[in-house]
Model the fold of this input.
Amino acid sequence: MAPRDLRSFIARLQAAGQLVRVRAEVSTDLEIAEIAGRLIARGGPAALFENVAGHTMPVLVGAFGSMERMAWALGAESLEAIAERVGRLAASVPLAGGAGLAAKMKALPKLLELARLRPKTVPSGPCQEVVRTGDEASLARLPILRSWPGDAGPFITLPQVYTADPDGKNRNVGMYRLQVFGPRRLGMHWHADHDGARNWRAWAERGRAMPVAVALGGDPVLTYVATAPLPYGMDELVFAGFLRDEAVAVVPCKTVALVVPADAEIVIEGTVESGERAREGPFGDHTGYYTPADEYPVMRVSAVTHRADAVYPATVVGRFPKEDCYLAKATERIFLPVIRTVVPEVVDLALPLFGVFHNWAFVSIRKHRPGQAREVMRALWGMGQLAYTKFLVIVDESVNVHDTEEVLWRVGAEADPRRDTVLETGRADVLDHAAPSGGEGGKLGIDATRKLPQEVGGRAWPEPLAPDPDTAARVTRRWREYGFE
Done:
């Protein structure tokens, strides 16, 4: 059964032997993060810290820290099962010739709304069992972690940040880290191309502060959709309803005109002024380096609500492997069928963990014409978050893109650096310290497919080695007869 809130997910993890309860006293300052990092590196379980120094709330880390746990969080036994559902939905969206991935994704909400999966508003919910406003709404009550010794302070790392434009449209749920500046002040680390920042600019143009709500916990599907690469205007709550096959129940906030999931553990309400900024960072990031300090908007907290027995969920980011890698791998699996509807020759896609989301992508294709690999490169660099990919390797459909050694062997065997590389300029991730300033950086595409005669001056590409099938079958039958186990 799919979890419907964080505690049912915790129960699922515990029943499967994928949760350890830590009863020894631990500190939110570096100690929990150090433990969490070691657990994820060893492929270990999630951890629920029940005795957090100076706090009454327990802290949960690592809940999404494996492919299996990610599938459970989304209510399935495998991510492929979810991908099949998304693929069927995407295939049913009619598009005019030449329409791309963005148009395909923007058309999805119409089908989802027809399926009556828009969120439903209820009068009350567990997330408001305890309500504190004004000076009582202190962030000091929450066990917010500092993860790395060079971090500028504690950071909220697993939030669902709810915003909407001034007309109440284009609701967005995003995941942006929030640095604690004080008992009622948070740094809002969104980038210029993030949807939350887009909504904020719309409020600023009218000279008004933007209402914001930050939810923690609840249905784990909601945490995932906050990270999903949906186009602006597509409601993450509608997509969450599709993934869970049930509309999300939401409640009105107490001090701002927004709704939040009724089953969240904790909700922080407030506003972001158009002109107020503060120095946010440094922060130990998924790149494996500290993101330098910079000026970011400030959220003024007006209320903190939570369950009476709330659990504080957190994640620790840093050099791979970390928990956020598996959130990214879920997106890789779930959105692959959507990519295939736009670029049909794509067979499989791998975003390797060491690529930290934007550095590397391996793609296999069904190749049947000269120059096809280059066509696919340019198509993928035009698709949403894939536009940030620095190194894109294209291989034949027979290659397992999830086997890095095989991919690199194909690069060595099938690619000529002068003929089969494509150097482009495109969007750079703002967190990529290696990229030039100005929002653009280099892109390197490598065509590691077998070459057709038209691509190599008419000569035939050599045939790969393969055993004689009859001999291989006979040896398999007689394997033990030879004395081997």
